[in-house]
Amino acid sequence: MICEIICVGTELLTGKTINTNASYIAKKMMMLGINMYHQTVVGDNTERLTEAVKRAVDRSDLVITCGGLGSTYDDMTKETVCKTLGKDFVLNKDVEKELHEYFKRQNRVMPESNIKQTYMPSDATPIPNENGTACGIIIPLEDNKQLIMVPGPPKEMKPMIDGTVVPMLMKKSGFVILGRSLNTLGLGESALAEKIRDLSISSQNPTVATYVKDMQVDIRITAKAENEEKATALLDEYEEKVRKLVPQEYIFGVDYDNIEERLVEVLKEKGLKIASAESCTGGFISKRITDISGASSVFECGVCSYGCNIKEKLLGVDTISEYGAVSKETAAEMAQGVLALSGADIAVSTTGNAGPDVMEGKAVGLVYIGVATKNKTETFEYSLALGRGNQRNNVRTNASTLALYNAYKAAVNL
Amino acid sequence: MICEIICVGTELLTGKTINTNASYIAKKMMMLGINMYHQTVVGDNTERLTEAVKRAVDRSDLVITCGGLGSTYDDMTKETVCKTLGKDFVLNKDVEKELHEYFKRQNRVMPESNIKQTYMPSDATPIPNENGTACGIIIPLEDNKQLIMVPGPPKEMKPMIDGTVVPMLMKKSGFVILGRSLNTLGLGESALAEKIRDLSISSQNPTVATYVKDMQVDIRITAKAENEEKATALLDEYEEKVRKLVPQEYIFGVDYDNIEERLVEVLKEKGLKIASAESCTGGFISKRITDISGASSVFECGVCSYGCNIKEKLLGVDTISEYGAVSKETAAEMAQGVLALSGADIAVSTTGNAGPDVMEGKAVGLVYIGVATKNKTETFEYSLALGRGNQRNNVRTNASTLALYNAYKAAVNL
């Protein structure tokens, strides 16, 4: 099957909006094993949309349009597409009823302009929208082809794709596709890819591939089978194969978005509390821990000791004059200091040079991380400047990731 | 003039890469007053690229292709485009020399595969690439049309667009376009748009429009004139007009990316130091301040007092049992506490409910911000939950923005 996406919206052509919808939908089609050869963007313009739809329906089996389903005069995707396809355009009573109820729930009366959102071809199937007033529409075409229209706002589009379009396509295809990600940290992408290379190359189903986000490298296993049970069995089998190739210490979880999610979970499971003392990361670690809802049960105290004075006064660091603020000694004392101050079980600290300039003779990207528990303090040294130009954002992001990772490892062993 | 973008890359069709290049280039064209009606994505495929190029050259005056200029066998944009346009394809001696020097600077010998990157039509103009081996190419076409090829990696593409393509198009057009953004906070976009509506509607040159990023609303003035002096005069004139319509208190700067950049600058100018005490924002404020390089001269201390215990012990808050942790009293005491602890001139604090659940009977999104100086403590109350679903990220982002904004206002008045 060949799928094609047409995104409709002048805001895409002026660059005001980045086209994240196309990649979101493309990923889902990829996962379903559906090929995609074209993506097109046109503005809210009848002539150009007509031309794009004609071409797409001609060369592809599944056409997904995205955007232009609103209630205002410049939303013309539905009218234009139906006219182009030679379809009738009638009021759908069920959708009308739904829409009235949608407004009623908000104690509002439906404005007259919204009635246009209830029109569609009589052989079309509406896709409900829980986050807005524009329903999606599935239109059957000749030769077993289909055209699907979804609204442009991601929070309306995504639930329709995930909740209706993907399950429908999966059912139509007669097989299910399941994925699983082994989350790793500590090994670079190329080193990791090298370890799983033979498996990756030799295996068509499941597929095994690496995906990088900042320092985290996920090993994604995707299996296709006639039912969920068989797909799960394939995933289990290949997860075991991958685990034989990658040292266990680098794998921190399965299907987590990031290390902070996993860290907070481990701390909760073990009834442990964590505290942070940050210099070069400037609060990024505590921000990331508290991004996770429910973090309050494992995190009470973070100190951002950006100045030497505060490192000394609040955390009791007393070797700065001897080793400098960017040193493993300072990292260790910061972690110990905030451990005592907070009464937490684990404390993590960072001190380093995020750039842009060399500082105390320490290179941009040099970062020390400390992890302290009641009985033990460890320190880690990293060089995190990866390229040219301003490395500040990279260094800080990667330093906070590695700090969270080392704290996670300490938590696991506690 | 009508421009069209063709992005080439299988990674876009699989959704692995979000197409940020198209919006980057589109914005520049918009700024130059060049219309865009189509954007297309095709894979690294000769047949489909040929078809896309033919159609684009036919219907547009300026075609920009992006991607597929690498040295490997699957990079075929240049060969395909030149063949489609009926152009010859010869080695460019200057580019070859440049490329050898590029490798020499890195103490490497140029691999043979890179020689293909020196080929282009004999009437083409190369665009130098300081961040990679693929030069860009400008090809003149009949009817005063042009086709421009740039590489796909953003760090290579952007300098070519900004350094060569935009100046060339500006020169060709015979006018210059300059922009200026008045940065505002504290008024919503619709309220702000309402204030400048008549000016916005009546003015064609300069154009006046609003752009939102999180809570910050920029009023962007874009002027077109025959030279820089005249364009600047237009900007000055319209900046004055805008300032008459928008209360001065909401405008925090001109051409700043964000409020933390402006805050750090004001603190530096005035020789002031700031400290933070964060609860619901969990370190986001200190993270944002220290995002700015050079922040160490104005920021030494942040406390993330996520637990009540730490608020009391470290910051001396003593009214939690009476008013609850989410209260203006706690916000005030947190700010006063960290002011005393740090010895800073200004302290800013946050306490609130970021969600997902109601807490102490306080609604999701209720946030108190405190700003303390030696002689005065102010508190601010906000309701920051804006829609349905998990509001945690919104609430925390907006709370940190408003905290930085209120701290900025205090710094200005100090």
Could you give a short description of this structure?
2 copies of one chain form a homodimer. Chain A is built from 15 helices and 17 strands.
Task: Describe the model.
Chain A has 414 residues and is an alpha/beta fold. Chain A contains 15 helices and 17 strands. In chain A, β6 and β7 form a beta hairpin. The interface between A and B is large, with 69 and 69 residues.
Beta-strand residue fraction of chain A? 15-25%
Roughly what percent helix of chain A?
Answer: 40-55%
Biggest interface, and residues per chain? A-B, 69 and 69 residues
Outline of chain A: elongated
Judged by helices, strands and strand pairing, the structural class of chain A is alpha/beta
Report the radius of gyration of chain A as a whole number of Å: 27 Å
Oligomer: homodimer
In the sheet with the most strands of chain A, the strands line up as 2-1-3-8-7-6
Mean pLDDT of chain A: 94
Distance between the termini of chain A: 52 Å
Question: How is the main sheet of chain A built?
Answer: 6 strands, mixed
How many β-strands of chain A, per DSSP?
A: 17
User: How many distinct helices of chain A?
Assistant: 15
Low-confidence stretches of chain A: none
List keywords for this structure.
homodimer, alpha/beta, 5-stranded mixed beta sheet, 15 helices
Write the layout of secondary structure elements.
The structure is a homodimer of 414-residue chains.
Chain A: E1 2-8, H1 10-13, H2 20-31, E2 35-42, H3 46-59, E3 62-66, H4 77-85, E4 90-91, H5 93-105, E5 119-120, E6 125-127, E7 136-140, E8 146-150, H6 154-173, E9 176-184, H7 189-195, H8 197-202, E10 207-213, E11 216-225, H9 228-245, E12 251-254, H10 259-270, E13 274-278, H11 284-291, E14 299-305, H12 308-315, H13 320-323, H14 328-342, E15 346-352, E16 366-373, E17 376-383, H15 392-413
Helix pairs in contact in A: 2-6, 3-4, 10-15, 11-15
